[in-house]
């Protein structure tokens, strides 16, 4: 019978995965958008539980003790726009164009995106992004789609239409006249969302350092 991992070994693996997350985040911030897929795989290792696999935080017994940083813009049922950006913001520069980015610490968030830290199940499963085709997205859905279907750890043989729309076809539906012509926003809103999820996780991890002592 295989020996169980001890806490010291789990903490070592946690530190490794946090370092993976930081390295992938830095690479994405430097312009490698595809690095979001490796972010998603690491977030899955840290956070996602199934009947047969157990996240690092769950094995450490701390996931239920943590409250997670929450920067998502909620879907307003009174808003008649067909889409909702959720975790991303829209960056526009005159003469350059417009794109979706993760705000991180660099952009002051409006009051509508400043929330008390959330318990894991709410943070992981609540839907806050709505694509222009009506598809709803949660942190869980962003992470598992990129990790399990879009090449993070596995490539699904069938295209995911909702992901393709959001990632490649301006699936939030916004346009900008920053260049003088009305053009769709650029960039992969799913990748930017996963980058913001990684940011939220790292802020949450730092805030709960006492759990990992």
Describe the structure.
It is a single chain. The protein is an alpha+beta fold. It has one domain (7-212). It contains seven helices and eight strands. The strands form four sheets. Strands 1-4 form a two-stranded antiparallel sheet. A hairpin with a 5-residue loop joins strand 5 and strand 6. Helix 2 packs across helix 5, helix 2 (36-47) crosses helix 7 (189-207) and helix 5 packs across helix 7. The radius of gyration is 18 Å and the shape is globular. The relative contact order is 0.20.
Give a quick precis of the structure.
This protein is of the alpha+beta class and 213 residues long.
Please outline the helices and strands.
Layout: H1 7-29, H2 36-47, H3 56-59, E1 67-68, E2 89-93, E3 97-101, E4 118-119, H4 120-125, E5 127-130, E6 136-138, H5 139-148, H6 161-168, E7 175-176, E8 183-184, H7 189-207
Antiparallel strand pairs: 1-4, 2-3, 5-6, 7-8
Helix pairs in contact: 1-2, 1-7, 2-5, 2-7, 5-7
Relevant terms:
38% helix; 8 strands; 213 residues; two-stranded antiparallel sheet; two-stranded antiparallel ribbon; alpha+beta; 7 helices
**Major sheet characteristics:** 2 strands, antiparallel
Q: How many whole angstroms does the radius of gyration measure?
A: 18 Å
Overall structural class, as computed from helix and strand content, comes to alpha+beta
- Alpha-carbon distance between the termini? 29 Å
What number of structural domains do the residues give?
A: 1
State the order of secondary-structure elements, H for helix, E for strand.
HHHEEEEHEEHHEEH
The beta-strand count equals: 8
Mean pLDDT: 91
